[in-house]
Every structure is written in C-alpha cells, then in structure tokens.
TrEMBL record:
Region (Disordered): 1-27, 80-103
Designated name of the protein: Metal ion binding
Feature: compositional bias, Pro residues: 1-16
Lineage: Eukaryota, Viridiplantae, Chlorophyta, core chlorophytes, Trebouxiophyceae
Length: 103
C-alpha cells in the first residue's frame, strides 16, 4: 500500500514549518519560552511604571490636601487667638468629650 500524498494533517510532507506530529526540539521550546518571558517582563515593567506614576500623583494630591488643611487649621488658630472662631473649637471639644464618654 502506498503512503498517502499528504501528511497526517493534510499538509504536504515537504512544506516548510514543523512537520505534522513532530514535537518541538529543546532549542525551539527554549526559544519560545524566552520569547514569552521577555513579553511578560515588558508587560510587568509597563504596569510597574504606571503604578509608580499613579502613586506619585496620589502622593502629590495628599501633600496638597495636607497643606490646605494645615493652612485652614492655622487660620482657625489665629482667629481663635484674636477672639474669632472660638465657638468652633468649643463645639469640637464638646463632640470629643461626648465621643469619649460614649466610647
């Protein structure tokens, strides 16, 4: 009986590429693994850079908010020193005492 004209998967035996049914060689497997690892590493580097950018933005916004609240608090203290805004401070103290009494 003569062998079929095509390979087991319908491809002519002399066609370029990996012949049908053949396992990849060690070198081919290593090359594909290295390619995958490089792609994965690039993706992880991109994610890391993006996270660092976002963390930097978050830190900057935290510092801006802290400076804003510090200036507001300083203004309240100055107002309290000259007799203004004392009512707010007393209200806060009452609230703190109520929370401590409840806790």
């Amino acid at each position: 009986m003569a062998p079929p004209p095509d390979g087991p998967r319908g491809r002519p035996p002399g066609e370029p590429g990996r012949p049908a049914g053949r396992r990849p060689t060690f070198e081919e497997k290593v090359a594909s693994d290295v390619k995958y690892c490089r792609q994965r590493f690039e993706l992880l580097q991109q994610r890391y850079k993006r996270r660092q950018e976002l963390l930097g933005q978050l830190e900057a916004s935290k510092e801006e908010k802290a400076a804003k609240y510090a200036s507001q608090y300083a203004a309240e203290l100055e107002g309290q020193a000259v007799g203004q805004g004392g009512g707010k401070q007393q209200e806060r103290q009452k609230q703190q005492q109520q929370q401590q009494g409840a806790g």
